[in-house]
Amino acid sequence: MRNLRSFSRFAMVTLAGLASATLVTTEVHADSAYASTGSSVLKFDSMRSLDTTIDTGFLGAGFASVRALIKIDPVKDGGPLYSVDMPKGAVVEASWAGDKKIVLKTANGSQTDGTVTVRHTLTPSLEVRLGVLGLNVEYAFSANDLLNQLPGASFDYDSKGRQTFAPWGFAAVDTKLNAPSLAGSTLFEQPLEGLVDRNTLEGTLGVRATTRPTFQYRTTRVTLSGAKSPITTLAGEAVIDAVDGDFIETTAQVEGEMSVSGSMEIQPFLTLTKVFQTGLTSDVPFDVVSKPYATPNASVTYPSTVVHIPLPNVHAPTKGLDLGDVTAGGSSKVSSVFVENSGEMAATMTFASSDPQFKVPAGSVTVPPKGKYELKISFAPNSDTAARADIKVISNDPDSPEQTFQIGANGALVEKSDGPAPVAAESGCGCKTAGTTTSKGTASTAFLFALGLAFVGAARRRRPTS
What single DSSP character describes residue 319? Predict the structure, then answer.
C-alpha cells in the first residue's frame, strides 16, 4: 500500500544572531474567520546593578569633607534586583481566512497576571578628606571595601515593590517603591578605627540615604520564527505561510527594557574623638543633598520560548470514486467516504457538488480533533448516460481550505490519484463501493534556529486509516 500523502520536512537553520529578523506587521487579516491560540511562560531575572551612580561631590566645610557615591544594587542574598514574570499572559493568537496565510498577534486581555518585582539596596562608596592639627589626609572606601569590613557584610537598606500588568507589557509598567525617611535610613555607621589606622584617627563615619525610585518596564519587541519583521506594538501582526500540519510551533524571542528614575536624599555624618593622641570631639555638620537621577535603558532579553498552536488538518479523498452502473428511475445509490481531521483543533466542513444528480449533505459539520466524518453521497441519475461530479470539501484547514475529489457513474472517467487502499463505502442498494481518504501537501514543516533557538514548524499528520 502506498502513502496517500508525502511526508516531508523543511528546515530553515538561522543563526541565533539573526533571530530578531523574523516577523511582518500588517492589518490585512484583521477579519480572519478562524482562530486558535497558544501560550508560553516568560520570565526574566536581573542580578546586575543598573548604571545608576549618585555623586554628591565633597560635602562639609573646614577641616573635614565627605564625598558619597551611591548606586542601586540587588540586596545581597536577597534575589534579583528585579524580575519580570508572565506566567500566563504570553498568549499568541493565530487567525486565518482561507488565503493560506496565518496571522499571529500578541493577545491582549483583561487579566493582569504579569508581575514586575523589585528588591534593592543602596550601595555607598565614600571619600573622606581631613585637615586638622597638621593632618591632611584622604581616605577612599569602595563599596566592596565597606562590605568586607562591616558586620554581616550587608548594608541595611532594603526596599521592595511589586506591580502587576496586562499581557506582554507593551505599555510601560511603572513599579514605584516606598522608602523610610532619611532620619530612619542609615546605610551604615562604622567606627573609624575599623577603617583607618587607629593610632591616627578615632571616631565614627556613616551615611544616610533614601530614595523612592520608579522602575519602568516595557516590552519592545517580539520576534516569532517564520515571519519577516518583529512585532513592536500590541496591535502589531505577523504573517507566516500556513503549514500542512496538525499544529504549529513558533519560537518567540521577546525583548524589553528597564529604566529607573527618582530622587535620592543623602547625608554623610562624621564624628571625630581622637586625632593622633590628642583628645578631640567634633561633630562635622553635613547638609542633606537631594539628587535626581535616571538610568540608561537596560536590556531585558528573555530566554527563547516555544509557543504551541493547535490547527485543524483536514484529509479529503484524492482518489476518484466510481459508482459503477446506476439505472435512471430506480432508487438512488448512496456511497460513503471518510473525511479525516488529524489536527489538534476541531475542523468545520461544508460540502458542494458540481452536478445536482450527486447530492451531498447541506449545512456544516464539526469534526473533533483526531476524528473522522462519514460523508454520504447519493446519486439519482436523470438518464443512464455517463455522469461525473466534483465534490468539494470546504473547511477551516489553513493550508488546504478547499479540497476536491471526483465521483462518477455509468462509465464516466474519474481522476485517480496515488494513495493507500480505498475505504469501503456502503451504498443504498446494498453493494459496496470503493472510496478513499486523502490529504494534500506536506505533513511536516520544521523551522529551527541555530544553537537551540528553534522554530519547529508543524506537526506530523496522522496517516488516514482504511
Answer: B
pLDDT confidence of residue 7: 31
Q: How confident is the model at residue 94 (pLDDT cuts 50, 70, 90)?
A: very high
> What string of DSSP letters covers 76-121?
TTS--SEEEEEEEEEEEEEEE-SSSEEEEEE---S---EEEEEEEE
60 Ramachandran zone, left/alpha/beta (phi>0; psi -120 to 50): left
Indicate the DSSP class of residue 178.
Answer: P
pLDDT above 60 (res 381)? yes
Smallest CA-to-CA distance from 293 within 177, 180, 220, 212 is with 212
Report the share of the chain in percent with pLDDT over 70.
Answer: 75
- Alpha carbon distance 172, 106 (integer Å): 16
Cα separation of the two ends of the chain: 11
Question: Residue 66, SS3?
Answer: strand
In this prediction, residue 464 carries a pLDDT of 40
The helix, strand and coil proportions of the chain, stated in percent and rounded to the nearest 5, come to: 5, 55, 40
Hey, what's the cell of 32?
480572519
What are the φ/ψ torsions at residue 207 (nearest 5 degrees)?
Answer: -150, 140
C-alpha cell at 306: 516555544
* Three-state secondary-structure class, residue 4: coil
The string of pLDDT tens digits covering residues 99-118 is 899 999 998 766 677 999 99
Q: Which H or E run contains 209? A: strand 201-211
Residue type at position 35: A
What is the tally of helices (H) and strands (E) in the chain? Answer: 1, 31
- How many whole angstroms separate alpha carbon 45 and alpha carbon 86? 12
Q: Is 187 helix (H, G, I), strand (E, B) or coil?
A: strand
Cα–Cα distance for residue pair 307/37, rounded to 1 Å: 9
Does residue 257 sit in helix, strand or coil?
A: strand
Residues facing residue 94 across a β-bridge: 36, 104
Run of H or E including 365: strand 365-367
Give residue-wise pLDDT tens across range 271-294.
888 776 666 667 787 889 999 999
248 neighbors 459 (Cβ within 8 angstroms): yes
Does residue 241 contact residue 101 with C-beta atoms inside 8 Å? yes
Give the residue from 297, 273, 287 showing the smallest Cα distance to 203: 273
Only one residue has cell 515593590, namely 161
Read off the C-alpha cell for 420. Answer: 493507500
Domain extents in the chain? 20-303, 314-442
Q: Which CATH class is domain 314-442?
A: mainly beta
Mean pLDDT for all residues in the chain:
78
- pTM for this predicted structure: 0.71
| Amino acid code (one letter) for 104 | L
Angle at 344 between CA 338 and CA 346, to 5 degrees: 60
